[in-house]
Design goal:
Layout lengths: L11 H10 L5 E5 L2 E5 L2 H6 L6 E6 L9 H8 L13 H18 E11 L2 E3 L2 E3 L1 H12 L2 E9 L9 H5 L12 E8 L16 H6 L7 H5 L3 E3 L16 H11 L5 E4 L6 H9 L2 E6 L2 H20 L1
Parallel strand pairs: 2-11, 3-4, 3-10, 7-9, 10-11
Antiparallel strand pairs: 1-2, 4-8, 5-6, 7-8
Bound molecules: S-adenosylmethionine.
The site of S-adenosylmethionine has 20 residues, from β11.
């Protein structure tokens, strides 16, 4: 695939429009065991081979909670504040359905699609996005497998403070410390091939043996306690921690397998793949985030070579 075109020159403002209506040419950066591609994942996915990846892992853009283009303008000093993006819930639903349907084609039968998602605020209300999302994914053809709660331990919001001010029934707004990690699977044509790892050799299994030292304490349950990143640790406004990506990738793929992240942001999935010896493809629409991710992945590769 080599559609290297002039998308480097696209401004964040142009990319903002691309959020729902993209027809974008794209450029790609080969990196270690994989590549990073700048473009709308809907376009890019159409050019990838079918049944290519064992695992997809991503966190989609959060409805209107983060306006990524304006966030980029703010860190460049062009804007003082960024505002929420004004799109309807229906547009957002279609945006996700189109892209996760395109993803289904490139994942191997029996392969996994793991998605980090959480409820979002919309016109002053909390929207049950994760629960709607599961239904949309099932309608597309993904099979629901697991719901894992990522417990972030640190509460960034102060919702529960309302009860301290008004210690009466009706004032309970718990501080939000969790997000969902949903596991979906692409159905396999034969039941006995649903376990995508059915034909791995004893040697491969041994090479991919998991470290279960902390298994009983934490990993055995569907609540994972993982510290979220602070804004100082990553320039992106909504990164997931490397530890989360590493855990998902180790549990659902073997060394050398192909992993894809269709909303790649700062490149956490690609970095985890480099560290764990997986092949990887990452897609991100905003050139500024692509730049940032590519630098981070190159630094990780350089560091790994020094070890
Ligand atoms: C929640 S963030 C992902 C953060 C990432 N998991 C990380 O750890 O850095 C979602 C990303 O999707 C990107 N995005 C939005 N629309 C896109 C599209 N159509 N194609 C590809 N990326 C898109 C946004 O720019 C944003 O960086």
């Amino acid at each position: 695939m080599s559609k290297a075109k002039s998308s480097k020159n696209r401004t964040a403002r142009e990319a903002q429009h691309a959020y729902t209506t993209c027809v974008s040419p794209y450029v790609e950066f080969p990196l270690g065991h994989g590549k990073f591609i700048q473009g709308d994942c809907l376009d890019v996915l159409k050019d990838l081979p079918a049944d290519e990846f064992v695992l997809a892992f991503t966190s989609p853009p959060y409805l209107n909670a983060v306006n990524y283009s304006q966030h980029v303008a703010k860190i460049k000093g062009h804007l003082k504040y960024w505002q929420r993006e004004n799109i309807s819930y229906d547009e957002y639903r279609q945006f996700l359905i189109d892209r996760f349907a395109a993803l289904l084609r490139v994942v191997k039968p029996g392969g996994y699609n793991i998605v980090n998602i959480s409820p979002v605020g919309w016109n002053g209300e909390r929207v049950a996005l994760p629960f709607h999302f599961v239904v949309w994914m099932e309608q597309i053809g993904w099979k629901f497998k697991e719901d894992i709660i990522w417990e972030k331990a640190i509460a960034r919001d102060r919702r529960s403070g309302v009860l301290l001010q008004h210690p009466y029934p009706g004032y309970y707004y718990p501080s939000l410390v969790s997000e969902y990690i949903f596991v979906f699977q692409k159905p396999a044509p034969r039941k006995d091939r649903e376990n995508i790892y059915w034909n791995r050799t004893a040697e491969e299994k041994e090479q991919n043996r998991l470290d279960l030292t902390h298994f009983q304490g934490e990993m055995s349950k569907n609540v994972w306690k993982i510290r979220p990143l602070s804004p100082q640790e990553n320039l992106h406004p909504a990164p997931f921690p490397l530890e989360l990506a590493e855990r998902v990738i180790s549990l659902y793929s073997y060394r050398g397998d192909g992993v894809i992240d269709i909303f790649a942001g700062s490149g956490q999935t690609a970095i985890a793949c480099e560290k764990l010896g997986r092949r990887h493809v990452s897609i991100e629409i905003l050139p500024e985030y692509v730049d940032y991710a590519v630098k981070r992945i190159r630094a990780c590769i350089a560091q790994t070579r020094l070890l």
